Structures are given as C-alpha cells and as structure tokens.
C-alpha cells in the first residue's frame, strides 16, 4: 500500500527512521558544519586583529569569551523558538545573526565593536547546534542516538574545515574582507540549504515534535529537577574536558615540545572526537543515553589520569587521540537523555539549557586550570582538579542510572 501524499507531494504522515528522515539529517549536518564558523573564526584571526587594534592578548581574547556567551544564551533562545515555531524559524534567525555579526565585525571601527559583535556571532552559531540535535531526535526512534550524534558532529566537522579556509582568506584578502565573505557564505549557502530542509519538512507540519515518539524512560523526577541535574553534570564534565582542550598548546610549550605540537594534538582530539560522537550515538541506540554518557565520563577520567602519568611526546599524541575518542560523545548524550526522559515539545529548550551549562563549564575549567597553574607552577594539580570534577559527573550519572525505569504510560 502506498503512503498517501499531501499537497506538497510529501508523505502525509511522517515516519521516523525513514528515508526522508535521513535526508533531513544530511541537510542538518551541512547546516551545522557551516554555522559552526562562529566557534572557530576568532581563534584564527586573533593575532592579526590584535595587531591592527594594538590591543593586549587579554583584550582581544574577550571576543572569544563573548562568542561563547552568545553561543550559550543564544542556544536557550533558539531552543525556545524551535519548540514554539519549528526549526526553520530558529535557523533563519541564526543565519541573520551570523550575517549581520560577520558583516559588522568586518567593518568594526574599534576593538569594542569587534568584541560586542561576537555576541551575535556566537548566538547565530548556537541555532545550528542544540536545536538541530533536539530536532534530529524527533525524526528518529530506532536510530535516535546515531542521528543526534551526526547532528552534533557538524560542530567538529566545521572545526576541521573552517580554520584553514579562514587562515587562507586572511592571508590573501585580510581579515576584514574574510569576515564579509563569511557573512555572504553563511547567508547564501545556509539560506539555500534551509529552503531545501523546509521543503523536506513540509509546510503543513512545521512542529514535528507534535507527532514525535513519547519519552522512553521514567527517572521519577520532575522535569525542572532533572534539567538542573543534567546542567550540573554538564558543568562538571566540561570543567574536566577544558583542561586538555584549552591548555594542551601551552602545556606542550612548557614541556619544551613547542606550541605547534600542541596544536597538532588539539586537531587530533577534534578528529577523533567526530569518531567518538558517531560511535557513542550508535552505542546509545543499544544501551541508552545515560549508560553511554557514564561510560564516556569514566573513560574521560582515565584519559586525564594518563595525562598525569605520562608526558613524553609520543605518549601525549596517543593520549590526546584517546581523549578525543573518549569525550566526543559526551555532549550529544545529554540531548539523547533529554529526549528519552522529557516531553518532546520541551526538548530544544532543555537541550539549550544543558548546552549553556556546558559553555559555562568550559569557560570555568579553562580559567581554573590557568589559575591553578599560576599558583603551583605546574599543570599536575590542574589535571587532578579536572579528575575531581569528572568524578562529580560520574556520581550524578550513577544516581540517574539507578533511577531509570521503563515508561509504561506514554507522556
């Protein structure tokens, strides 16, 4: 029997895990890869912008801080917009913010303007991360974990593609022209892909969470309480995660290996992080989001311990690859847990809150590690600090794991 079609020539009833769902996911991955530029651009152009504005390293680094702040707060706002009006409007708002942010940054007359505009850049990028993970969870049931992981991988894929492109553009045309070119690419490319995605979504069903599968598990906790616990766990794991990610370049410099080696290790982390996200998503489809996150957190703690035990150059390359392989799947697991345990109509907002907590955790972890290094003259205590925060994350996940019950009555 053929599936009935609506006026747009699409299936009148959307089927999770179907071919249209995989096509949507592919489009979401492309949008996420392009939109993640806001996470990486300021890192690439930081030295040349600093030189033009004759600013200190601390002052120009505020642009990254503001981008992260915009990413965190924008994720909550975009998630709310997605829950109420659908993913299309949320991404359209993100495209507009990215276009205006990069155009304004390219024309910025002073450092203060450049820094402030990164609030818009970060907020624009956020619409292509948390909301896309939540929306992908509505399109799949059997392969939900894999789908969420693929949607989240756009962030890391963009991290592999954008920096060399931005560096080339800056060398060829200058950072100002490059920022304007990024604005143009974001508006035109993402706008075109959004139109394709909207066509695939269909005008008659803009809110797919209305027909999404119900929660699978019951943790016997009110939604606000569960959200608070997930946010606390997210802060804890990201404080631990920040130690290698933020300080690996400086750590290699202190050991005498040079910053270039540290940059290679960071790239290695991100590359293996993509594999980790896909693998963790497949694992979550087998055992669930909470056990998957728990395994990732335990493995991350082991990697931090290995950093503490070995500091040879070859060892650091190997441990960095392992760290990326262990931690890459942690962030998408939160989105999977949200959909397994919470109502679909709140998913994007709740995922946005957890992402905001993770941004705070990364910021706090990077700062604490630097503070501990200044106090002790070594990163050994900073690794121990990361392990302690990681233990808190493990404790929360064990608590939730012990409370899991299959949901018998649909929510």
Structural overview:
By secondary structure, the chain is mainly alpha-helical. It has 15 helices and 2 strands. A two-stranded antiparallel ribbon has the order 1-2. It is globular, with a radius of gyration of 21 Å. The two termini are 31 Å apart.
Strand content: under 5%
> Number of helix segments?
15
Rg, nearest Å: 21 Å
> Largest sheet at a glance?
2 strands, antiparallel
Distance between the termini: 31 Å
Can you write the helix and strand succession as a string? HHHHHHHHEHHHHHHHE
Q: Can you tell me the overall shape?
A: globular
Low-confidence stretches: 1-11
**Could you report the average pLDDT, rounded to the nearest whole number?**
86
- The total of beta strands comes to 2
Helical amount = over 70%
How would you classify the helix and strand content by structural class? mainly alpha
**Widest β-sheet, arrangement of strands:** 1-2
């Amino acid at each position: 029997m053929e599936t009935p079609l609506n006026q747009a020539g699409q299936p009148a009833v959307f089927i999770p895990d179907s071919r249209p769902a995989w096509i949507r996911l592919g489009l979401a991955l492309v949008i996420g890869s392009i939109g993640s530029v806001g996470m990486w651009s300021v890192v690439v152009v930081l030295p040349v912008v600093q030189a033009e504005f004759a600013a200190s390293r601390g002052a120009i680094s505020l642009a990254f801080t503001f981008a992260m702040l915009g990413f965190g707060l924008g994720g909550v706002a975009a998630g709310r917009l997605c829950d109420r009006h659908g993913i299309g409007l949320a991404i359209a708002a993100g495209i507009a913010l990215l276009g205006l942010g990069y155009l304004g940054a390219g024309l910025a007359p002073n450092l203060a303007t450049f820094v402030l505009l990164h609030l818009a850049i970060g907020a624009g990028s956020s619409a292509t991360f948390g909301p896309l993970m939540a929306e992908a969870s509505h399109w799949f049931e059997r392969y939900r974990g894999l789908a969420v992981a693929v949607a989240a991988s756009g962030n890391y894929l963009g991290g592999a593609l954008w920096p060399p492109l931005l560096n080339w553009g800056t060398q060829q045309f200058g950072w100002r022209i490059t920022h304007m070119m990024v604005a143009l690419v974001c508006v035109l490319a993402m706008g075109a892909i959004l139109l394709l995605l909207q066509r695939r979504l269909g005008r008659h069903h803009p809110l797919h969470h209305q027909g999404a599968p119900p929660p699978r598990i019951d943790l016997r906790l009110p939604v606000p309480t569960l959200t608070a616990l997930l946010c606390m766990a997210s802060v804890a794991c990201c404080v631990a995660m920040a130690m290698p990610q933020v300080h690996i370049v400086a750590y290699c410099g202190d050991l005498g290996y040079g910053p270039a080696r540290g940059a290679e290790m960071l790239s290695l982390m991100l590359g293996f992080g993509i594999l980790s996200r896909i693998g963790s998503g497949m694992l979550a489809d087998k055992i669930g989001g909470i056990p998957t996150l728990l395994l990732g957190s335990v493995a991350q703690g082991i990697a931090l311990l290995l950093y503490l035990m070995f500091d040879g150059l070859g060892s650091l390359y190997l441990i960095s690859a392992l760290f990326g392989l262990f931690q890459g799947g942690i962030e998408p697991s939160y989105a999977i847990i949200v959909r397994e345990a919470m109502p679909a109509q709140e998913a994007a907002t709740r995922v946005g809150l957890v992402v905001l907590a993770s941004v705070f955790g990364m910021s706090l972890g990077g700062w604490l590690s630097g503070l501990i290094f200044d106090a002790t003259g070594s990163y050994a205590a900073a690794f121990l600090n990361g392990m302690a925060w990681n233990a808190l994350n493990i404790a929360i996940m064990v608590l939730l794991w012990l409370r899991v019950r299959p949901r018998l009555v649909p929510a």
